Predict the structure of ThiJ/PfpI family protein protease/amidase.
Amino acid sequence: MGKKVATVITKLFEDVEFTSPKEELEKAGHEVVTIGFNAGETVEGKKGKASVTIDKSIDDVSPEDFDALLIPGGFSPDQLRKDERFLNFTRSFSNNKKPIFSICHGPQLLINAEVVKGKDITSVSQVAIDLKNAGANFHDKEVVIDDSGLISSRTPDDLPAFNEAMVNALQ
C-alpha cells in the first residue's frame, strides 16, 4: 500500500530536488502532496525548469494525514522557515519519528524547527556550519540516515542514492 508524502515547497525551490524524488516516489506507488502558502498557487523552481501547483495550503493540512515529509532544497526552505506553521508541521514529523527526507538547503527548515540536535545529517556545504551550531552531527556523505528516520543528502548529484534511500524507508 502506497504512503502519503507531504512536500513543503514554495517559489525558487531547486527544480530537480523536487521533480526527481517525486518521480521516484510515485513510481514506487506513493502519493506526493505539495503543501505551500496557498492551495492552487503555481510556484517556479529557481532554474525555471519546473513549476508546481500547490495542492494544499499549510492551513488545510495536518501532519497526522501523512506518512513522511519531503523538504526539497533551493531557496524554498529559507522562505518556509520563517513561518511558524511550517515549523510546527515539521516538528510534528520529528516528534512522532515519521520519516523526513531533506536535501541540499532543506535542513534550514529543520534547524529553525529545532529538530536536528544530536541527529546525524548532511546538507549542501554552506549549511553545514548552521547544522553543527544547532547541535547536529554533520557528515559529508551522499546520504545520511539517522535512527530517527531523518534521511538527508547534499546536492542534486546525490539524488540517485537519496531517492533509493527514501523509497527503501517507505517499504
Summary: The first strand starts at residue 4 and ends at 8. The domain at 4-169 is CATH 3.40.50.880 (Rossmann fold). The chain has one domain: 4-169. The chain has a mean pLDDT of 98.
